[in-house]
Amino acid sequence: MSTHTPGPSVLHKTVARIEVHPADKRFCYAFSLSDEANARLIAAAPTLLAAALDASAYFASRNLGDAANAVHLNLKTAIAKATLSP
């Protein structure tokens, strides 16, 4: 798995911009105020990836039928995109 920005991230709104500070605080992502949705998504990304990994492991350990298999495939696709895994 590739490395990624560690979570959790904190979203901080200033008068002029929105900042997302990762847990390691080595840097921040800055967004214009009109780009709040993207800032919130980036701030949530580490938590979303952890949840997707947990859910994928749950689905992989059970035989839950076709609907669950479709959800599991979507999870694996999202995880692969987030981690650059094949």
Describe this structure in words.
The protein is an alpha+beta fold. The protein has one domain (10-83). Helix content is 50%, strand content 13%. The protein contains two helices and three strands, in the order βββαα. It has helices at residues 36-60, 66-83, and strands spanning 10-13, 18-21, 29-31. The chain has a three-stranded antiparallel β-sheet, with helices on one face. α1 (36-60) crosses α2. It starts with 9 loop residues before the first strand and ends with a helix.
Please write out the topology.
Elements: E1 10-13, E2 18-21, E3 29-31, H1 36-60, H2 66-83
Antiparallel strand pairs: 1-2, 2-3
Helix pairs in contact: 1-2
Largest sheet: 3 strands, antiparallel
Strand order of the largest sheet: 1-2-3
Integer average pLDDT: 84
Unreliably modeled segments: none
Q: Determine the strand fraction and express it as a percent band.
A: 5-15%
Rg, nearest Å: 16 Å
Shape: elongated
Through-space gap between termini: 10 Å
* Count of individual helical segments: 2
**Strand and helix order:** EEEHH
Oligomer: single chain
Query: Pairing-aware structural class of the strands and helices?
Result: alpha+beta
